[in-house]
Each structure stands twice: as structure tokens, then as C-alpha cells.
Amino acid sequence: VVRNETLTCYNGVPADGCGHCPACKLRGQGLDEYLKKKNNMAELKDQLSLLGRHTEYKQDYAPDVLEAFDNKHPGNDYWVRFNCPEFTSLCPITGQPDFAEIRIAYLPDVKMVESKSLKLYLFSFRNHGAFHEDCVNIIMKDLIRLMSPKYIEVTGIFTPRGGISIYPYANYGRPGTKFEQMAEHRLMNRE
Question: So which residues are the catalytic ones?
Fold first, then answer.
């Protein structure tokens, strides 16, 4: 139990405690470090309005639900990948449902997309009429607007309708950087 930046031994042993309970182990690891992490998490939670709160599902396309948070490693180039195997949208002509797996991969810069907000955003396409190619490009452009990544790619693996399946792919690399060249290379060498 943390009380006023001190720890109380779970077993009631005074002074340095028993050394075995979670409170004593935490004290041994460094209470200051624990409190610092706790404060950082509180700051992060202040940046996000959806995580850990009641969920309201939007009934149509809702890019406003997307939220971003600060990347703690902006100097590193690394991949973040999301897979949404239950994406649905509507055909804008017939109104029939389309089903897909949406794959998103990006190299973050300063901002990163928060996963619950991404889930709610992708869910908002459920009653939205858009062609497969539109969905993939809209998703990519909304994520670029949100977080300005170094590089991003979005793939839609749509289930067949009428005996044909469509797999649209869109990518972007920040202009004037090696990521622009990477985007061109990956697009030109796509299978």
C-alpha cells in the first residue's frame, strides 16, 4: 500500500519490513522510480479520453474518435503493426456488407495512434458506404493526419463477393526522406 510516498509492509513488520511481501520488494526496487512511473501513467491517461472509460460506438464513419499519444522513442525507427480481422463496411451502391481484414503498419515519429481509438474508428465504418479502395485510402490518410508517421501502409484483404476478392494496398513515406524512397520501393515491388 502506497501512502504519502511511503510503503507499509503487508505483514506489518516495522522499519525495513519483512523483505518478502510485494510492498517490501517494491521498496527494494525503488519507491521513487515506481512513483515516477505512476505519475507518467497518469499524464498519459490525461492525454487519452477513451482508454479505461465507457465505450460509445459510432454508427457511421467517425475520424474524430482517433486519439494519439507521445512516442517515447521518437529517435528509433521501429514498426508498429495492427491487424483488424473483423472489419466491415457497406457497398455504397448496393448497401450490402463487405468484410475484410485490415492490416496497418507504420513507423512512428512523434505521435502514435492509441489502439482503442483505432478499434472504434475502424468499427465506425460498419454502416459507412465506401468502396474497398476508398476504405484503405481513407484509413491511411486519417492516420497520416493524426500522427504524421515516418512511413505507413494499409492493406485491405476483402472477402470475395460475386466470385472476386479485392486486396487494395496504399502506402506513404514522408516526402524528402528515406521513407519516401521506401514507400516507392515497397509499392513498386508489391506482389
Answer: 91, 98
